[in-house]
Design brief:
Layout: H1 3-8, H2 18-25, H3 31-41, H4 43-57, E1 63-64, E2 84-85, H5 93-97, H6 105-130, H7 134-153, H8 159-173, H9 176-185, H10 190-199, H11 202-217, H12 222-239, H13 265-268, H14 276-281, H15 283-308, H16 317-342, H17 344-363, H18 371-399, H19 403-428, H20 434-450, H21 465-471
Antiparallel strand pairs: 1-2
Helix pairs in contact: 3-9, 4-9, 4-11, 4-12, 6-7, 6-8, 6-19, 7-8, 7-9, 7-12, 10-16, 10-18, 11-16, 15-18, 15-19, 15-20, 16-17, 16-18, 17-18, 17-20, 18-19
Length: 477
């Protein structure tokens, strides 16, 4: 008998809900769940590697004039004017393909198209993981494609081939995080699900820190960074995923009679599959989906927008990226400690308003002279608050929808997140104060929108649409 069958009580004649079976056979968060959680959550590091690698691969390295100051021509002319790249032409895509001056827009184009690929992929894999592939199957396919596309990117012969492969990488990479999140947290009991869900995001920040270290070692070759990203996905696919079980909520063994949500035979007989169309047909889930999409989009604009300012600090790029990732960890700790004590809704509102207020304050401060410290402090607090919210939204959003459509709903909110990521760079270039004003408004508006969502702390994860409608007596409580 497999671990999953044991958890569900395979062979038993009585009907049992998944949460009851977990509590009876494995506890809320037993040794098997802990092992499963760590192995699956490690996939977040893969998403970090494939997303943030562009910071280093597409950086603008320093140029030098060997002939001496004033002896070289226009820097935009590059080697033709006597300029050389201090770390060689292979140090970044910018140096290799001359993406400077009039060609600089191509760097931003790659980033935007990568997130566009993430937007499409999150929706596609969300549907596949809710249907025949399952949670584990979807994660396996995504990791395999990541390994292949990253390796091909490392040998891209020109800019347009590189851009195309980054779009394909975005298609597969955009689903790794939420597939990992759902697979890691569905076997965990209700009272431990919030803390466990928030703890998974340390793996993403850890992946960014590791990437910064690897990039510092391979400063002279952007291609080697993609080789490392490919190997990481391959190792995870071969050495980790074989030891991961499918979600007990996704695959029911033969002979097991599962009780969905309550003792009603009508609910027990309901189909265990559904689509995003079912979410839109229900007034309850439709309202939740619209609000979740808007909130995730606004949060992504603020989170990615503030993160992009790291490049404007004019400090060591590798140290700055690592410090930025490490600075997010106290925010994760805050949500881990208080998510069950105060609930998802109050915590989300508080952190969003905190970020919004400080970003608004930052828009009123000039970056000149001594006031630059105050402006930086506003930015740090803004990132802190948004990082806390950004990660809280994963657990909160997943609890708003039943099992049969959970990944599809997360796919939609993931698409909204990617759209926000695409918009963020466009906001950053608006000047000194305008971006902070936009971030502040986005934070405050999203905080106000959370007021219209229900609290989910210590409530069961519903399995079916009918179960949700039955359990939630009032549509908007």
């Amino acid at each position: 008998m497999s671990t999953m069958e044991a958890l569900l009580g395979g062979g038993a004649s009585r009907r049992v809900s998944i949460d009851d079976a977990l509590a009876e056979h494995a506890g809320e968060f037993g040794r098997w769940q802990l092992r499963h959680f760590v192995l699956v959550s490690a996939a977040w590091a893969l998403e970090a590697l494939n997303t943030m690698v562009i910071i280093f691969a597409d950086r603008g390295p320093a140029m030098a004039c060997p002939a001496g100051d004033g002896q070289c021509g226009d820097p935009c002319a590059g080697a033709a004017a006597g300029w050389v790249w201090t770390q060689g032409t292979g140090s970044s895509t910018v140096a290799e393909w001359g993406l400077v001056c009039g060609e600089r827009y191509k760097v931003g184009l790659v980033q935007a198209l990568f997130f566009a690929g993430c937007l499409i992929g999150s929706g596609v894999f969300g549907h596949l993981s809710d249907s025949f592939l399952g949670r584990k199957g979807a994660l396996q396919v995504a990791c395999f494609l990541n390994a292949v596309f990253a390796l091909l990117t490392s040998i891209a012969p020109n800019y347009w081939a590189y851009t195309s492969l980054r779009v394909l990488t975005g298609f597969s990479n955009g689903s790794v995080g939420f597939c990992s999140f759902v697979l890691a947290n569905e076997p965990i009991g209700p009272s431990r699900r919030g803390v466990a869900g928030m703890s998974g995001f340390y793996f993403f920040s850890g992946g960014v820190v590791v990437l910064a270290g690897v990039a510092a070692i391979f400063q002279s070759s952007w291609r080697l960074l993609y080789v490392v990203a490919s190997l990481a996905s391959l190792v995870y696919l071969v050495a980790v995923l074989p030891f991961v079980s499918e979600s007990p909520r996704c695959r029911i063994p033969d002979g097991v009679t599962l009780k969905f949500d309550d003792n009603d035979d009508k609910l027990a007989g309901e189909s265990s599959s559904a689509s995003i169309l079912d979410v839109l047909r229900s007034r309850t889930t439709r309202r939740r989906l619209v609000l979740s999409v808007l909130i995730n989009l606004l949060c992504a604009v603020v989170y990615y927008g503030l993160s992009l300012n790291v490049g404007n600090l004019r400090t060591n790029l590798y140290v700055s990226v690592a410090v930025n990732a490490l600075a997010e960890m106290p925010a994760f700790l805050l949500t881990t400690l208080f998510i069950d004590r105060f609930g998802r809704k109050p915590l989300a509102i508080s952190t969003l308003l905190l970020s919004g207020v400080f970003c608004t304050a930052g828009s009123l401060i000039s970056a000149a002279d001594a006031m630059s410290v105050a402006k930086m402090a506003c930015s740090v607090v803004g990132i802190f608050g948004m990082a806390a919210t950004y990660n809280l939204l994963f657990i909160y959003t997943s609890e708003l929808f039943p099992t049969v459509v959970r990944n599809a709903a997360l796919g939609c909110t993931g698409q909204a997140t990617r759209m926000g990521a695409i918009l963020a760079p466009l906001v950053v270039v608006l000047g000194e104060r305008v971006p902070f004003a936009v971030f502040g408004m986005a934070g405050i508006v999203s905080g106000l929108l959370v007021f219209y969502l229900p609290e989910t702390v210590n409530k069961p994860l519903y399995d079916t649409m009918a179960g949700l409608e039955e359990g939630e007596k009032t549509p908007c409580k």
